[in-house]
Amino acid sequence: MEETILLLLLLPPLLALIIVVGIIIKAAAAAAARTHRQNLPPGPYSWPIIGNVPHMLKGPHIYLTQLARSYGPLCSVKLGTHLFVVGSSPMAATEIMRAHDRLPTYRWVPKAGQDGLQQYSLIWATECTHHWKLLRSLCRTELFSAKGLESQSCLREKNVDSMVGFLKRKQGSLVNVREMVFAVTVNILGNICFSKDFIELESGEKETSRGLRGALYRLMKLGTTPNIADFYPKFEGLDPQGLKKKTSEAMDEAFDVWADIIKERRNIREAQKGIDSAGGDQQDFLDTMIGCGFSDLQINQLTVELFSGGTHSTASTIEWALAELLKNKDAMFAIREELVKELGSTTCIKESQTSKSVY
């Protein structure tokens, strides 16, 4: 009698377990069948539900390099519910862009960056909209064209001179190369966009400096943190790791750094309305954005993307290059001899001189 009662109590959980296992197996089989039908490039076996996410934990670049060695320059990998086709050679990338050039324009954007401002974004835009084309054209013309780069050379040279002077004063002391280059890069962008330095090399204790520095570092960290919602979009509304909220807070902190500058510039332009400004002061990128009718939100979004994309990568690359030079004495001596030959004893470096340095 007791055995019968126990069997009746265990029967519902057992039936539920069998049904769940059957559903999982059926879903896995259907997914495998769909994969074969789609004529995808070769790739590793993907586990049901999680896909190949566990393999990415040891480093995406390491895992993708191993896949390229095993499956060739074109392979497929599944992360959660998303299927990715990876092109790991110049030829594969060229073929993807040539044969499927429209597909990359509908980019996969991390959920942490989707804060409702995609319509104003250059980096995080999910579609190739009219406003995105306007931003791209504006940046290409004002910032990255030959004329734009030439007009900014004096700003870059001024900040490089200040860095050289800082290093001379710090001779014999420890210098954090990454932090120094980061500060110089932020100030170069600050002068291009707002005609203002945001970080002092001598002291990073100022509130404005600390706020912008901290906000940009947090944005970089949040942007590279694996997010469950990226692999399983159903969790997007829950924001289980709080990454979207933290990203929004970091962006608001960066916006506050230059909010007063934007307000002041708008007041000046309003006061000068109707006055002939021909031959007036040289405009910076903020004047250009205001002249194009950008709202404060649009200015903030584009500016924080320019700062985020142009600071950490530059600082990390230069730090890495100096570390490699310290390990390669021959390369270090070759560069030193070339600099002495081109620059002589002067410490005032011009961009036109560096272009002559062949090595």
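That was protein one. Protein two is written in the same sequence-then-structure order:
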Amino acid sequence: MAPLPLTSTRTLITKEGEFDLDFVKEAAQDEVKPHPGKYHTIGILYHTYYHILACVGFYHLFYLKWQSLLWVIFYHYCGIIGIGTGVHRLYSHRAFKATVPLRILLLFMYAIANGISAFSWSRDHRVHHKYSDTDADPHNAKRGLFYSHFGWLLLHKHPEVINKGKNINLDDLYNDPILMFHHRHYTLIRFITCIVIPIFVPTYFWGEYWLYAWTAGHGLVQVFTSHCSYTVNSLSHQFGMKPYDTSYLASECRLSNGLTLGEGHHNYHHAFPYDYSHGEFNSFLLPFNLFRLPNGSTTFIETCALLGLAYDLRRPPKEMVLRRMNRTGDGSLKVE
């Protein structure tokens, strides 16, 4: 199928401009109750091990061959693209459609960060959008910066996350054979992407010391890539302006945007979650604007669209964005 024009607005939207796939946010609760979840012992041990490994890997960065240093940077950004473009914009929000080769590539790149499966990530993210800033939000920002960034991974899920998660429509995920294959065989896939490849490539092709490849290419890349993505849950829900909707804690955070290649325009994203560009000014095909920040994921999607690998890219009409800003924004961004 030939790709649609990059400005296509073929969307599923409500009158308020929300994506009509179980993403319409429910009213947020004012009071935050104590978290009843128990500590996740296995998760604590897992993260402790990898953070120690990452610290050693950071030290070993200074001893890497130049080829290995470039490899570490490249592999890190592959993981960032896999998260932002793959599980987030494609599978969680269906912001665009992708051909089979691109879907396989994105799922492979996502596994570099060694998180939960793409299916589970997309499910939890849909819960986050529908119940944002409530007890049913997996990383409720009202519980503080540390909790929303990393603390939630050290606890078992809040009961409300599990209960409300049962109300989310996941039919499109279950009906995707590539995604479900990835889900069923994720243990093997991430073993290959997180351990085998980052260690084998530098040691075999340019003779890097295996220990440096293990600590820096494996441990450091995994931890740093993960923490960059976590800033969207933490920094982008605590710091920045809210020109599109003040009812969300989500804000426009430039630091998070830089660390994640374009995921930091979070207030816009919660207002228009189906937009493939993740921001009003993020497309490099739009006229220049000083507010626009570099967005690697958007550029990646647009490049894939030009190559025929991505299509049906979705964006809301500009008039809808302006109406939303005037109705619910904080007035911090003036756009003609």
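The beta strands are 97-98, 310-311. Keep this in mind for the problem set.
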